[in-house]
Amino acid sequence: MNLELVNKIGPRTVKTLNKLNIFTVEDLLNYYPYKYNFIHIMPIEEVKDDVLVYVRAIVFSDAKVQYIKRNFNRLNFVANSGNQNFKVTIFNRAFLKQHLVVNKEILLIGKYNQVKNTFVANDIKFNVFSDRIEPIYHLTEGVKNGVLSNYIEDALKLNCPIDDFVPEDINLKYNLISKMEALQFIHQPRTVEEVKKAKLKLIYEELFVYMFKIHYLKLLNKKSLGLEKTFLEDKVQDFLSFLPFKLTEDQLLAINDILNDIKSPKRMNRLVLGDVGSGKTIIAIVAILANYLAGYQSTFMAPTEILAKQHYESVNNYFKDYGIRIVLLTGIMSKKAKEKVYEDIKQRKIDLVIGTHALLNEKLEFANLGLVITDEQHRFGVNQRNLLQNKGKVGEVDVIYLSATPIPRTYALTIYGDLDISNVKTKPKMRKEVITRVKSEKEITDVLKAMYEELCLGHQVFVVSPLIETNEELDLNSVNGLKEKMTVAFSGKMRIEVLHGKLKQKEKDELMEEFQKGDIKILISTTVIEVGIDIPNATMMVIFNAERFGLATLHQLRGRVGRNDLQSYCYLVSNTNDNARLKVMEESTDGFYISEKDFELRGQGDLFGIKQSGDMIFKIADLRHDMKILMQAKEDAEKFIADEVYKENALYKNIIDEINFLD
Ligand code: ADP
Ligand code: MG
Is 435-588 the same fold as 224-424? Predict the structure, then answer.
């Protein structure tokens, strides 16, 4: 249904909403809040110090604005609640002055200090005066929370037909509410109970659809016959014996699994699951070699330009004596260059194409594709699983996924139920463990000294911080703030640059390249550097506000250093007292151990690296909490598919179609 059917939504708003991936009324209704504010209004006399509260009050004196420095002001006035007058301060809301007329009723949100008789407000509202549950949405520039909430309220009234993907008998079995009711409750709950009911339904539905896809793929793989490929195994053994290092036991086992798959009449559909730095790339390279020797083309897809380029370089290096014709295909290449690549691949002048999402372009056709490898598989969605392999002839294409998500085996078997799994647990031995220290912000000079020592040795340093710009309300370090501080600390002698997701792809690539070359000494970034890059000369990782990150993320970040035999270090800077979680990082560099500890300590973990995980981009389900529901959905989906009723139902045909198209 067209968005403009919703009250007050015009073409401009549509554009803004598009930025949130909302294109239809259905999308709008499926745009769930990520949390709720429970507004419980209380009189000022009952307020305890330093707790976030909602207080209903009346403006008692005109508001005055004080300009403190550029972009920084405060607004002061006196308010009255019950029999009590008190001061109110709010920062950076000078624009509210005109609304704060004497005797006007307002709702203050913030903290009160009794001694100073002052209320420091985070926000002031003018239209809410009763207890309620307020949904909070992720926003983008140009749309405020209240406005979005109103659009959704109107959209709910349109009675737009909404698909419920949970089969009726399952709805009954678990007492799930209807989809429409769930949407009503998720956006406009009157009670906590309603939120719970809505969440249960929507989470179950999401996981059911996910497991339906996985089982469908599994079935498809079972049915699809493969090809017995033959190649000279001696040549592969030869290649292995000339590697500059000794392969670990698990690497050898994974390679063995893969070579067997290639030879067998079954189509390979294998996930190589191994921690950061466990050496998955070389496993992929051996697979490419075998596939090449069997006479087929290969493709190797990575989630970022930087990583694709790095693979391109190292693959070229490994294959320099093999006459394998390799090409790089990425989105930033000119149209002409891309077309040349398409042509060469079609003409079978190329044996291996390495690239990014650009490989999914429909213009790319192969002469005889035999192997598809996806690196950092967890960055791509499940819907993309089939896309690349569909570029080959039926049955000819073997598929390998590489992933660094350390998850316990039972979970892996569920989430990746359609794949065979090779685990790479052991890490290359010669490598020195990264020495990890947790430091408070007070000890920052220790960290700077340690950085200085590494820099003097000619090494480089990664610095990571959660934010791009400094934010007055959140007491967090930002990449730009840190650049200023570090420039001062190192007297401007070291070249320091900043990298974050808002930069253009070209700028990011240039910065990475200069860092790789060693021109940049300190690279300060947000978590965008998280994925797979290899910069051997970078020996130190300093993470600010480390408490803000999950252990899985910290582990991935730390994996950027210690990738050769130089001693490497990781400093976790935090200003909270509760560092038990961070201490786990001091204890171990084993991703599986860390993810398990994370579970123990928090009763949950972020082992799935929720944010960056393509398969796990769930709108509402959170596998940290919803594992039980996932297991249930797995069982139900299995049965549902076995019964084959889905085949007559258009709803599920659509889901199946989705698997084969880009999302
Ligand atoms: P990941 O599993 O995180 O993708 P990589 O494949 O990038 O890890 O390997 C990390 C580094 O370890 C690379 O520089 C690679 O050359 C090296 N490496 C891989 N296997 C071994 C091994 N068996 N012994 C020593 N070094 C290895
Ligand atoms: Mg890798």
Answer: yes
Contact residues for 10 (Cβ-Cβ < 8 A; gap 6+) = 4
The CATH number of the domain covering residues in 435-588: 3.40.50.300
The fold of the 224-424 domain, in CATH, is Rossmann fold (3.40.50)
245 lines ligand 1 (CB under 6 A): yes
* The pLDDT of residue 173: 96
Q: Alpha-carbon distance 563 to 462, whole Å?
A: 13
Measured in angstroms, how far is the CA atom of residue 534 from the centroid of ligand 2? Answer: 8
Ligand nearest to the CA of 430: 1
Q: Is the pTM of this model over 0.90?
A: no
If one looks up domain 41-130 in CATH, what number appears? 2.40.50.140
The residue extents of the domains of the chain are 41-130, 168-222+626-662, 224-424, 435-588
3-state secondary structure of 551: helix
CA of residue 496 relative to chain centroid, distance: 26
Does ligand 1 have an atom closer than 6 angstroms to the CB of 426?
A: no
Cβ neighbourhood burial of 307 (10 Å; 0-12, 13-18, 19+): buried
What mean pLDDT do residues 429-451 have?
89
- Ligand nearest, relative to CA of residue 303: 2
Q: Is 377 in the pocket of ligand 1 (CB under 6 A)?
A: no
Q: Does ligand 1 lie within 6 Å of residue 428's CB atom?
A: yes
For ligand 1, pick from 282, 378, 557 the residue to mutate: most ligand atoms within 8 Å of CB. 282
Position 560 pLDDT exceeds 90: no
Q: 248: Cβ below 6 Å to ligand 1?
A: yes
Q: Which atom of ligand 1 is nearest to the CA of 247?
A: 23
Q: What is the pLDDT of residues 461-518, one digit of tens each?
A: 999 987 766 655 556 678 888 898 899 999 888 999 998 878 887 888 888 889 989 9
Which single residue is written with the structure tokens 């999308």? Answer: 27
| Cα 277 to middle of ligand 1, angstroms | 5
Mean pLDDT of 338-362: 94
Of 314, 18, 225, give the one whose Cα is nearest residue 142. 18
**Helix H or strand E segment including 335:** helix 335-346
